[in-house]
Design a protein that fits this description.
By secondary structure, this protein is mostly helical. Helix content is 84%, strand content 0%. It is built from three helices and no strands. Helix 2 packs antiparallel against helix 3.
Length: 70
């Protein structure tokens, strides 16, 4: 199943890939940051912002990989 999803993802255009990555990782990052923020001593909203920053790492790595292949 994972290879099937990977093939479908690679078949998308670069712009569509970025949208998919953002749509998947940004809500996850914000939600986990919001929930885990108080356990590390920050407000939930600030934890959500930190989660968004961390969630953008896969998207940034994907952009760097695409830029290096061109």
């Amino acid at each position: 199943m994972a290879s099937k999803l990977a093939r479908r993802f690679e078949a998308l255009s670069f712009e569509q890939q970025l949208i998919v990555l953002a749509a998947v990782f940004d809500p996850l990052g914000f939600g986990l940051g919001y929930l885990l923020g108080p356990s590390v001593g920050v407000e939930p909203l600030i934890g959500g912002v930190f989660g968004l920053v961390v969630a953008n790492v896969p998207t940034s790595l994907h952009v760097l990989r695409e830029a290096s292949s061109r």
